[in-house]
Specification:
- The chain is α/β, with parallel strands linked by helices.
- The chain has one domain: 3-Layer(aba) Sandwich (Rossmann fold).
- The chain contains nine helices and eight strands.
- The structure holds 2'-deoxycytidine-5'-monophosphate.
- 2'-deoxycytidine-5'-monophosphate (DC) binds next to helix 2, helix 4 and helix 8.
Length: 223
């Protein structure tokens, strides 16, 4: 029986929307691990901790209370996120966090602390977990591992439309550049870089609907 599904892939490859829909279909819990790295970056900015100071950011990560709950609204959020009791669900999606989260997520100790929490979540079973290193590091024993791909232009277009739907006036070119920079940092970092697990199934989402991709994964789960 399938208990754990790991989905990895670059920025805006469809991990969250596919993962959420899949979890709903299967009645599984869903965890977008990116929000945890975002929560640490958000807290560093909020509490004036220098992003370049690896030791200080690592200490902050180990002291933070990050809570992830089921979504309270159907407004595109994957979960409700609280940091030390404060609702940061949308704030962690802001530009400032976007620009510093890759750096924070490259710190070994930050990854160790968050990986431990993610594994605890996975132990419950009946989970879909998405991120960059779920199939390789967090849940190497996952029953199904998916690596989602899509061209940078398609991914930037999706992010642009999401931002516009939320009333944010950020330009396509800016999104594309920021995304390419994050992909570069995430793929080249020393600790748990973004790579497909050798046993992952690659799915190219270019020109395909969320429903088609979810169906393909369901078929793998039924095998
Ligand atoms: O998926 P996202 O854009 O919300 O992720 C935010 C950042 O966190 C991204 O730059 C990569 C990092 N991340 C990571 O290193 N490992 C994960 N498992 C999830 C996200």
């Amino acid at each position: 029986m399938v208990r754990m599904i790991a989905i990895d892939g670059p920025v805006a490859s469809g991990k969250t929307s596919v993962g959420l829909a899949l979890a709903k279909r299967l009645g599984f819990l869903f965890l977008d691990t990116g929000v945890m790295y975002r929560a640490v970056a958000w807290a560093a900015l909020k509490f004036g901790v220098n992003i370049d100071d690896e030791i200080a950011v690592s200490r902050l990560a180990s002291e933070l209370k990050i809570e992830i709950h089921k979504p309270s609204h159907e407004d595109g959020r994957s979960n409700d996120i609280f940091v030390n009791g404060e609702d940061v669900t949308w704030e962690i999606r802001g530009e400032k966090v976007n620009n510093s989260v890759s750096q924070v997520s490259a710190y070994r100790e930050v990854r160790r602390v968050l990986t431990e929490q993610q594994r605890l979540f996975g132990k419950q079973g009946g989970v879909v977990m998405v991120g960059r290193d779920i199939g390789t590091v967090v849940l190497p024993d996952a029953d199904i591992k998916i690596f989602l791909k899509a061209s940078p232009e398609e991914r930037a277009k999706r992010r642009f439309e999401e931002e516009r739907a939320r009333g944010n006036e950020i330009g396509y070119e800016e999104i594309l550049e920021n995304m390419k920079m994050r992909d570069r940092l995430d793929s080249s970092r020393e600790v748990a870089p973004l790579v497909a697990a050798p046993d992952a199934v690659m799915i190219d989402t270019d020109g395909r609907t969320k429903e088609e991709v979810v169906e393909e994964i369901i078929q793998l789960a039924l095998k």
